[in-house]
Design brief:
36% of the residues lie in helices and 21% in strands. The chain is an alpha+beta fold. A hairpin with a 3-residue loop joins β15 (254-259) and β16 (263-269). The termini are far apart.
Length: 476
Protein backbone atom coordinates (compact mmCIF):
# COMPACT_ATOMS: atom_id res chain seq x y z
CA UNK A 1 0.00 0.00 0.00
CA UNK A 2 1.18 3.53 -0.75
CA UNK A 3 0.45 6.44 1.56
CA UNK A 4 1.02 10.09 0.67
CA UNK A 5 1.11 13.05 3.04
CA UNK A 6 1.14 16.54 1.51
CA UNK A 7 2.70 18.60 4.30
CA UNK A 8 3.48 22.29 4.58
CA UNK A 9 7.20 21.86 3.99
CA UNK A 10 7.11 18.85 1.70
CA UNK A 11 5.39 15.71 0.49
CA UNK A 12 6.16 12.26 1.90
CA UNK A 13 5.31 8.94 0.29
CA UNK A 14 5.61 5.59 2.09
CA UNK A 15 4.97 1.99 1.05
CA UNK A 16 3.70 -0.51 3.63
CA UNK A 17 3.02 -4.22 3.54
CA UNK A 18 -0.19 -5.63 4.99
CA UNK A 19 1.75 -6.19 8.23
CA UNK A 20 2.78 -2.52 8.39
CA UNK A 21 6.40 -3.08 7.34
CA UNK A 22 7.95 -0.05 5.67
CA UNK A 23 9.37 -1.13 2.30
CA UNK A 24 9.82 2.21 0.55
CA UNK A 25 9.72 5.94 1.18
CA UNK A 26 10.61 9.23 -0.46
CA UNK A 27 10.06 12.92 0.12
CA UNK A 28 10.34 16.16 -1.82
CA UNK A 29 10.20 19.77 -0.67
CA UNK A 30 8.62 22.91 -2.12
CA UNK A 31 8.69 26.61 -1.22
CA UNK A 32 6.43 28.54 1.12
CA UNK A 33 5.27 31.90 -0.27
CA UNK A 34 4.73 34.90 2.03
CA UNK A 35 3.74 37.72 -0.36
CA UNK A 36 2.45 39.95 2.48
CA UNK A 37 2.71 39.96 6.28
CA UNK A 38 0.36 37.30 7.65
CA UNK A 39 -0.12 35.64 4.25
CA UNK A 40 1.09 32.09 3.59
CA UNK A 41 0.57 30.44 0.20
CA UNK A 42 1.88 27.60 -1.94
CA UNK A 43 1.60 26.83 -5.62
CA UNK A 44 -0.43 23.68 -6.29
CA UNK A 45 1.78 23.06 -9.33
CA UNK A 46 4.74 22.77 -6.92
CA UNK A 47 2.80 20.17 -4.95
CA UNK A 48 2.07 18.28 -8.16
CA UNK A 49 5.68 18.24 -9.35
CA UNK A 50 7.00 17.14 -5.95
CA UNK A 51 4.32 14.45 -5.63
CA UNK A 52 5.04 12.90 -9.00
CA UNK A 53 8.78 12.86 -8.27
CA UNK A 54 8.28 11.21 -4.88
CA UNK A 55 5.89 8.63 -6.32
CA UNK A 56 8.39 7.83 -9.08
CA UNK A 57 11.14 7.41 -6.49
CA UNK A 58 9.10 4.96 -4.40
CA UNK A 59 8.02 3.09 -7.52
CA UNK A 60 11.68 2.47 -8.38
CA UNK A 61 12.33 1.19 -4.86
CA UNK A 62 9.37 -1.19 -4.99
CA UNK A 63 10.25 -2.49 -8.42
CA UNK A 64 13.82 -3.22 -7.31
CA UNK A 65 12.51 -5.14 -4.29
CA UNK A 66 9.87 -7.06 -6.26
CA UNK A 67 6.82 -5.40 -4.67
CA UNK A 68 3.61 -4.43 -6.50
CA UNK A 69 1.56 -1.36 -5.46
CA UNK A 70 -2.13 -2.15 -4.99
CA UNK A 71 -3.61 1.16 -3.82
CA UNK A 72 -2.65 4.71 -2.79
CA UNK A 73 -4.19 6.62 0.13
CA UNK A 74 -4.03 10.41 0.44
CA UNK A 75 -3.43 12.70 3.40
CA UNK A 76 -2.37 16.31 3.76
CA UNK A 77 -2.37 19.67 5.45
CA UNK A 78 -5.90 20.78 6.24
CA UNK A 79 -7.84 23.99 5.52
CA UNK A 80 -5.99 25.20 2.40
CA UNK A 81 -7.94 26.46 -0.62
CA UNK A 82 -7.19 25.48 -4.23
CA UNK A 83 -9.39 27.56 -6.54
CA UNK A 84 -10.12 25.95 -9.92
CA UNK A 85 -11.72 27.48 -13.01
CA UNK A 86 -14.20 25.88 -15.40
CA UNK A 87 -11.42 23.94 -17.10
CA UNK A 88 -10.02 22.62 -13.83
CA UNK A 89 -6.99 24.94 -13.94
CA UNK A 90 -5.57 26.57 -10.81
CA UNK A 91 -6.53 30.26 -10.63
CA UNK A 92 -4.08 31.54 -8.00
CA UNK A 93 -1.67 30.24 -5.31
CA UNK A 94 -3.43 28.40 -2.50
CA UNK A 95 -3.77 30.16 0.91
CA UNK A 96 -2.74 27.73 3.67
CA UNK A 97 -3.97 26.65 7.10
CA UNK A 98 -1.83 29.24 8.90
CA UNK A 99 -2.76 32.16 6.61
CA UNK A 100 -4.14 35.13 8.56
CA UNK A 101 -5.68 37.35 5.85
CA UNK A 102 -9.28 36.45 6.65
CA UNK A 103 -10.11 38.40 9.83
CA UNK A 104 -12.80 40.47 8.08
CA UNK A 105 -14.21 37.36 6.41
CA UNK A 106 -14.45 35.57 9.78
CA UNK A 107 -16.33 38.56 11.20
CA UNK A 108 -18.67 38.57 8.18
CA UNK A 109 -19.43 34.87 8.61
CA UNK A 110 -20.25 35.23 12.31
CA UNK A 111 -22.39 38.32 11.67
CA UNK A 112 -24.37 36.32 9.14
CA UNK A 113 -24.49 32.98 11.00
CA UNK A 114 -24.37 33.39 14.80
CA UNK A 115 -21.39 31.64 16.34
CA UNK A 116 -23.49 29.37 18.55
CA UNK A 117 -25.49 28.15 15.54
CA UNK A 118 -22.34 27.64 13.48
CA UNK A 119 -20.83 25.50 16.26
CA UNK A 120 -23.96 23.37 16.56
CA UNK A 121 -24.06 22.79 12.80
CA UNK A 122 -20.38 22.45 11.87
CA UNK A 123 -18.69 21.71 15.20
CA UNK A 124 -16.56 24.85 15.02
CA UNK A 125 -16.69 28.61 15.14
CA UNK A 126 -15.38 30.52 12.13
CA UNK A 127 -11.58 30.25 12.27
CA UNK A 128 -9.19 32.40 10.26
CA UNK A 129 -7.27 29.41 8.91
CA UNK A 130 -10.33 27.48 7.68
CA UNK A 131 -11.23 27.26 4.01
CA UNK A 132 -14.67 28.90 4.15
CA UNK A 133 -13.30 32.32 5.26
CA UNK A 134 -10.77 32.10 2.41
CA UNK A 135 -13.60 31.76 -0.07
CA UNK A 136 -15.43 34.73 1.45
CA UNK A 137 -12.16 36.71 1.36
CA UNK A 138 -11.67 35.87 -2.33
CA UNK A 139 -15.13 37.19 -3.16
CA UNK A 140 -14.31 40.57 -1.60
CA UNK A 141 -10.59 40.98 -2.27
CA UNK A 142 -10.28 39.36 -5.72
CA UNK A 143 -13.75 39.43 -7.31
CA UNK A 144 -12.37 38.60 -10.76
CA UNK A 145 -10.83 35.39 -9.44
CA UNK A 146 -13.97 34.56 -7.46
CA UNK A 147 -16.05 34.97 -10.62
CA UNK A 148 -13.79 32.45 -12.39
CA UNK A 149 -13.94 29.93 -9.53
CA UNK A 150 -16.04 26.85 -10.22
CA UNK A 151 -14.56 24.54 -7.58
CA UNK A 152 -12.55 24.92 -4.38
CA UNK A 153 -10.53 21.93 -3.19
CA UNK A 154 -8.51 21.03 -0.13
CA UNK A 155 -4.79 20.37 -0.78
CA UNK A 156 -4.83 16.57 -0.74
CA UNK A 157 -8.08 16.50 -2.73
CA UNK A 158 -6.37 18.54 -5.43
CA UNK A 159 -3.82 15.73 -5.70
CA UNK A 160 -6.67 13.24 -5.93
CA UNK A 161 -8.10 15.27 -8.81
CA UNK A 162 -4.68 15.42 -10.47
CA UNK A 163 -4.20 11.67 -10.22
CA UNK A 164 -7.72 10.52 -11.15
CA UNK A 165 -9.58 13.40 -12.79
CA UNK A 166 -12.34 13.05 -10.16
CA UNK A 167 -13.44 15.81 -7.79
CA UNK A 168 -14.26 14.67 -4.25
CA UNK A 169 -13.37 15.04 -0.59
CA UNK A 170 -13.94 13.05 2.60
CA UNK A 171 -15.33 14.00 6.02
CA UNK A 172 -12.18 14.34 8.15
CA UNK A 173 -10.69 17.04 5.93
CA UNK A 174 -14.01 18.53 4.82
CA UNK A 175 -15.02 19.16 8.44
CA UNK A 176 -12.14 21.66 8.60
CA UNK A 177 -13.67 23.79 5.85
CA UNK A 178 -16.32 25.38 8.06
CA UNK A 179 -19.40 24.47 6.00
CA UNK A 180 -19.86 20.71 6.61
CA UNK A 181 -22.81 19.70 8.78
CA UNK A 182 -21.22 17.14 11.11
CA UNK A 183 -24.46 15.33 11.91
CA UNK A 184 -25.29 14.61 8.25
CA UNK A 185 -21.71 14.81 6.89
CA UNK A 186 -23.02 16.85 3.96
CA UNK A 187 -22.63 20.51 3.05
CA UNK A 188 -24.80 22.68 5.27
CA UNK A 189 -27.12 24.35 2.78
CA UNK A 190 -28.51 26.79 5.36
CA UNK A 191 -25.04 28.13 6.21
CA UNK A 192 -24.10 28.43 2.54
CA UNK A 193 -27.41 30.06 1.62
CA UNK A 194 -26.94 32.62 4.38
CA UNK A 195 -23.52 33.47 2.94
CA UNK A 196 -24.85 33.45 -0.65
CA UNK A 197 -22.49 30.64 -1.64
CA UNK A 198 -23.37 27.65 -3.81
CA UNK A 199 -22.80 24.12 -2.55
CA UNK A 200 -21.69 23.34 -6.10
CA UNK A 201 -18.39 25.07 -5.29
CA UNK A 202 -17.50 22.12 -3.07
CA UNK A 203 -16.85 18.53 -4.20
CA UNK A 204 -18.89 15.46 -3.31
CA UNK A 205 -18.17 13.93 0.10
CA UNK A 206 -17.24 10.22 0.14
CA UNK A 207 -15.98 7.97 2.94
CA UNK A 208 -12.31 8.25 3.87
CA UNK A 209 -11.68 4.66 2.69
CA UNK A 210 -13.61 5.07 -0.57
CA UNK A 211 -11.88 4.72 -3.92
CA UNK A 212 -11.81 8.13 -5.63
CA UNK A 213 -10.99 6.57 -8.96
CA UNK A 214 -8.31 4.72 -10.93
CA UNK A 215 -4.96 6.32 -11.66
CA UNK A 216 -5.08 8.11 -15.01
CA UNK A 217 -2.93 6.61 -17.79
CA UNK A 218 -0.90 9.84 -18.15
CA UNK A 219 -0.17 9.85 -14.40
CA UNK A 220 0.80 6.19 -14.54
CA UNK A 221 3.22 7.00 -17.36
CA UNK A 222 4.84 9.81 -15.35
CA UNK A 223 5.23 7.76 -12.15
CA UNK A 224 5.60 4.20 -13.50
CA UNK A 225 2.76 3.17 -11.20
CA UNK A 226 0.24 0.65 -12.56
CA UNK A 227 -2.48 2.14 -14.75
CA UNK A 228 -5.76 1.89 -12.89
CA UNK A 229 -4.11 1.86 -9.44
CA UNK A 230 -6.83 2.51 -6.84
CA UNK A 231 -6.61 6.02 -5.36
CA UNK A 232 -8.33 6.23 -1.96
CA UNK A 233 -9.76 9.46 -0.48
CA UNK A 234 -7.75 9.19 2.76
CA UNK A 235 -7.88 11.80 5.54
CA UNK A 236 -6.70 15.13 6.86
CA UNK A 237 -3.26 14.95 8.41
CA UNK A 238 -4.35 14.78 12.05
CA UNK A 239 -7.02 12.18 11.34
CA UNK A 240 -4.63 10.09 9.24
CA UNK A 241 -2.01 10.24 12.01
CA UNK A 242 -4.73 9.12 14.42
CA UNK A 243 -5.43 6.14 12.18
CA UNK A 244 -1.73 5.23 12.19
CA UNK A 245 -1.68 5.34 16.00
CA UNK A 246 -4.78 3.17 16.31
CA UNK A 247 -6.93 5.98 17.75
CA UNK A 248 -10.29 4.60 16.78
CA UNK A 249 -13.67 5.92 17.84
CA UNK A 250 -14.41 2.36 19.00
CA UNK A 251 -11.87 2.97 21.81
CA UNK A 252 -12.52 6.56 22.90
CA UNK A 253 -10.39 6.09 26.03
CA UNK A 254 -7.17 6.23 23.97
CA UNK A 255 -6.09 9.59 22.55
CA UNK A 256 -2.82 11.22 21.61
CA UNK A 257 -0.64 14.19 22.42
CA UNK A 258 1.81 15.55 19.86
CA UNK A 259 4.77 17.68 20.91
CA UNK A 260 5.73 19.00 17.51
CA UNK A 261 6.15 22.65 16.59
CA UNK A 262 2.64 23.00 17.98
CA UNK A 263 1.07 20.83 20.67
CA UNK A 264 -1.97 18.80 19.63
CA UNK A 265 -4.45 16.80 21.70
CA UNK A 266 -6.54 14.26 19.75
CA UNK A 267 -9.54 12.60 21.42
CA UNK A 268 -11.76 10.15 19.50
CA UNK A 269 -15.53 10.42 19.96
CA UNK A 270 -18.44 8.19 19.02
CA UNK A 271 -20.83 11.14 18.61
CA UNK A 272 -20.26 14.73 17.38
CA UNK A 273 -20.11 16.64 20.68
CA UNK A 274 -18.76 20.18 20.26
CA UNK A 275 -17.59 22.58 22.92
CA UNK A 276 -20.46 25.13 23.02
CA UNK A 277 -17.94 27.99 22.90
CA UNK A 278 -15.85 26.50 20.08
CA UNK A 279 -12.63 26.62 22.10
CA UNK A 280 -11.48 23.29 20.64
CA UNK A 281 -12.17 21.84 17.22
CA UNK A 282 -14.64 19.06 16.47
CA UNK A 283 -13.95 17.14 13.27
CA UNK A 284 -15.10 13.96 11.61
CA UNK A 285 -12.57 11.15 12.11
CA UNK A 286 -11.30 9.14 9.16
CA UNK A 287 -12.51 5.91 10.78
CA UNK A 288 -16.15 6.98 10.47
CA UNK A 289 -16.48 8.50 13.95
CA UNK A 290 -15.50 11.92 15.27
CA UNK A 291 -12.70 13.55 17.22
CA UNK A 292 -11.93 16.58 19.30
CA UNK A 293 -8.75 18.43 18.41
CA UNK A 294 -7.08 20.96 20.66
CA UNK A 295 -4.07 22.92 19.43
CA UNK A 296 -1.59 25.05 21.35
CA UNK A 297 0.61 26.87 18.87
CA UNK A 298 3.98 26.71 20.68
CA UNK A 299 5.18 23.36 22.04
CA UNK A 300 8.47 22.07 20.65
CA UNK A 301 8.46 25.32 18.68
CA UNK A 302 9.02 27.17 21.97
CA UNK A 303 12.10 25.09 22.70
CA UNK A 304 13.28 25.66 19.11
CA UNK A 305 12.87 29.43 19.65
CA UNK A 306 14.84 29.32 22.91
CA UNK A 307 17.66 27.37 21.30
CA UNK A 308 17.83 29.49 18.14
CA UNK A 309 17.73 32.83 19.94
CA UNK A 310 19.52 32.16 23.24
CA UNK A 311 21.60 28.98 22.90
CA UNK A 312 22.34 28.35 19.20
CA UNK A 313 25.46 26.27 19.90
CA UNK A 314 23.68 23.95 22.35
CA UNK A 315 21.95 20.71 21.38
CA UNK A 316 18.36 19.99 22.28
CA UNK A 317 19.54 16.99 24.30
CA UNK A 318 21.70 19.23 26.50
CA UNK A 319 18.89 21.75 26.97
CA UNK A 320 16.43 19.03 27.96
CA UNK A 321 19.00 17.58 30.34
CA UNK A 322 19.48 20.98 31.97
CA UNK A 323 15.73 21.36 32.44
CA UNK A 324 15.56 17.95 34.14
CA UNK A 325 18.51 18.74 36.41
CA UNK A 326 16.53 21.10 38.67
CA UNK A 327 13.79 19.90 41.00
CA UNK A 328 11.44 22.71 39.97
CA UNK A 329 11.47 26.09 38.25
CA UNK A 330 11.72 27.89 41.64
CA UNK A 331 8.95 30.33 40.89
CA UNK A 332 9.74 31.05 37.23
CA UNK A 333 6.65 30.87 34.99
CA UNK A 334 6.51 30.83 31.19
CA UNK A 335 3.43 31.71 29.16
CA UNK A 336 4.08 30.03 25.77
CA UNK A 337 2.10 32.34 23.48
CA UNK A 338 4.93 33.08 21.04
CA UNK A 339 2.55 32.97 18.07
CA UNK A 340 -0.66 33.96 19.78
CA UNK A 341 -2.83 31.04 20.83
CA UNK A 342 -5.51 28.81 19.41
CA UNK A 343 -7.08 26.41 21.95
CA UNK A 344 -8.67 27.38 24.22
CA UNK A 345 -8.13 31.15 23.95
CA UNK A 346 -8.54 31.55 20.18
CA UNK A 347 -6.60 34.82 20.35
CA UNK A 348 -3.85 35.58 17.80
CA UNK A 349 -2.74 38.64 19.80
CA UNK A 350 -1.65 36.83 22.98
CA UNK A 351 2.09 37.01 23.64
CA UNK A 352 4.61 35.00 25.65
CA UNK A 353 6.47 35.96 28.81
CA UNK A 354 8.81 34.76 31.53
CA UNK A 355 7.91 35.99 35.01
CA UNK A 356 9.11 35.49 38.58
CA UNK A 357 12.79 35.88 37.70
CA UNK A 358 15.44 36.65 40.33
CA UNK A 359 19.23 36.71 40.55
CA UNK A 360 19.20 33.12 41.81
CA UNK A 361 17.78 31.69 38.59
CA UNK A 362 19.85 30.30 35.74
CA UNK A 363 19.22 28.79 32.31
CA UNK A 364 18.04 25.47 33.74
CA UNK A 365 15.19 27.17 35.57
CA UNK A 366 14.15 29.04 32.41
CA UNK A 367 14.18 25.79 30.45
CA UNK A 368 12.16 23.91 33.03
CA UNK A 369 9.64 26.76 33.15
CA UNK A 370 9.42 26.70 29.35
CA UNK A 371 8.66 22.96 29.26
CA UNK A 372 6.16 23.35 32.09
CA UNK A 373 4.48 26.26 30.31
CA UNK A 374 3.88 24.21 27.17
CA UNK A 375 2.46 21.38 29.30
CA UNK A 376 0.17 23.82 31.10
CA UNK A 377 -1.09 25.22 27.79
CA UNK A 378 -2.09 21.67 26.86
CA UNK A 379 -3.77 21.35 30.27
CA UNK A 380 -5.81 24.50 29.52
CA UNK A 381 -6.99 22.81 26.34
CA UNK A 382 -7.71 19.49 28.05
CA UNK A 383 -9.82 21.26 30.69
CA UNK A 384 -12.23 22.10 27.84
CA UNK A 385 -12.05 18.60 26.34
CA UNK A 386 -12.36 16.69 29.64
CA UNK A 387 -16.17 16.80 30.03
CA UNK A 388 -16.64 15.99 26.33
CA UNK A 389 -14.34 12.99 25.97
CA UNK A 390 -13.57 9.65 27.62
CA UNK A 391 -9.79 9.77 27.22
CA UNK A 392 -7.75 8.16 30.01
CA UNK A 393 -4.48 7.49 28.15
CA UNK A 394 -2.49 9.49 25.61
CA UNK A 395 0.01 8.10 23.11
CA UNK A 396 2.78 10.65 22.61
CA UNK A 397 4.28 11.61 19.25
CA UNK A 398 6.39 14.40 17.79
CA UNK A 399 9.98 15.44 18.40
CA UNK A 400 9.34 16.47 22.00
CA UNK A 401 7.93 13.03 22.78
CA UNK A 402 11.46 11.62 22.77
CA UNK A 403 11.89 13.26 26.19
CA UNK A 404 10.34 11.15 28.96
CA UNK A 405 10.91 14.10 31.30
CA UNK A 406 8.84 16.46 29.16
CA UNK A 407 6.10 13.86 28.85
CA UNK A 408 6.16 13.43 32.63
CA UNK A 409 5.38 17.13 32.97
CA UNK A 410 2.50 16.73 30.49
CA UNK A 411 1.16 13.73 32.40
CA UNK A 412 1.31 15.69 35.65
CA UNK A 413 -0.39 18.75 34.17
CA UNK A 414 -3.19 16.81 32.46
CA UNK A 415 -3.50 14.13 35.18
CA UNK A 416 -3.56 11.44 32.51
CA UNK A 417 -1.40 8.44 31.71
CA UNK A 418 0.99 9.39 28.91
CA UNK A 419 2.78 6.68 26.94
CA UNK A 420 5.82 6.87 24.70
CA UNK A 421 4.99 5.01 21.49
CA UNK A 422 7.50 2.34 20.54
CA UNK A 423 7.33 3.65 17.00
CA UNK A 424 5.85 6.84 15.59
CA UNK A 425 3.89 6.28 12.39
CA UNK A 426 2.60 9.49 10.85
CA UNK A 427 -0.04 10.74 8.45
CA UNK A 428 1.52 9.04 5.40
CA UNK A 429 1.35 5.65 7.16
CA UNK A 430 -2.25 6.39 8.17
CA UNK A 431 -3.11 7.21 4.56
CA UNK A 432 -1.67 3.83 3.49
CA UNK A 433 -3.75 2.09 6.16
CA UNK A 434 -6.90 3.83 4.95
CA UNK A 435 -6.23 2.30 1.54
CA UNK A 436 -5.81 -1.25 2.87
CA UNK A 437 -9.51 -2.26 2.75
CA UNK A 438 -9.65 -1.25 -0.92
CA UNK A 439 -6.93 -3.81 -1.63
CA UNK A 440 -8.62 -6.50 0.46
CA UNK A 441 -5.93 -6.54 3.15
CA UNK A 442 -8.43 -5.91 5.98
CA UNK A 443 -12.24 -5.99 6.06
CA UNK A 444 -12.41 -2.38 7.29
CA UNK A 445 -10.29 0.47 8.57
CA UNK A 446 -10.89 -0.38 12.23
CA UNK A 447 -9.42 -3.86 11.72
CA UNK A 448 -6.29 -2.37 10.15
CA UNK A 449 -5.97 0.15 12.98
CA UNK A 450 -6.23 -2.49 15.71
CA UNK A 451 -3.80 -4.84 13.95
CA UNK A 452 -1.10 -2.25 13.29
CA UNK A 453 -1.39 0.08 16.31
CA UNK A 454 1.97 0.73 18.01
CA UNK A 455 2.49 -0.29 21.62
CA UNK A 456 3.27 2.31 24.27
CA UNK A 457 5.19 2.53 27.55
CA UNK A 458 3.86 4.77 30.33
CA UNK A 459 6.17 7.55 31.57
CA UNK A 460 6.60 8.57 35.20
CA UNK A 461 4.16 11.31 36.24
CA UNK A 462 5.83 14.45 37.62
CA UNK A 463 4.19 16.64 40.26
CA UNK A 464 3.64 20.15 38.87
CA UNK A 465 0.92 21.28 41.26
CA UNK A 466 2.65 24.43 42.55
CA UNK A 467 3.93 25.54 39.13
CA UNK A 468 0.52 24.98 37.53
CA UNK A 469 -1.17 27.09 40.22
CA UNK A 470 1.32 29.93 39.54
CA UNK A 471 0.68 29.67 35.79
CA UNK A 472 -3.07 29.84 36.28
CA UNK A 473 -2.78 32.82 38.63
CA UNK A 474 -0.69 34.78 36.10
CA UNK A 475 -3.22 34.11 33.33
CA UNK A 476 -6.02 35.44 35.51
Amino acid sequence: MLGLDLGTSGVKVVALTAQGELVGQASRHYPLLTPRPGWTEQRPEDWAAATLEALSDVTRQLKAAGHTPLALGLSGQMHGAVFLDEGGEVIRPAPLWNDQRTALAVAEIERTVPRAELIVRTGNRAVSGFQLPKLVWLRTAEPENFARTRQVLLPKDYLGYLLTGHLCTEPSDASGIGALNLASRTWDQDVLDALDLSADLFPNVVESWAVVGPLLPEMAARTNLPTGLKIVAGGGDNAAAGVALGLTSDRPELGSVSLGTSGVLFAPLTQPTPDPQGRVHLFAHADGGYNLLGVTLSAAGALQWFRDKLAPETSFEVLLSEAASVDDSQGVTFLPFLSGERSPHMNPDLRASFSGLSLSHDRAHLLRALLEGTAFALADTYDVMRPLSSVTTLLATGGGARSAFWLGLVAGALKLEVQQAQREPGAAEGAAMLAMPAAGFYPNVQAAMLALAPAGQAVAVLDVTDSLAAYQAIQK
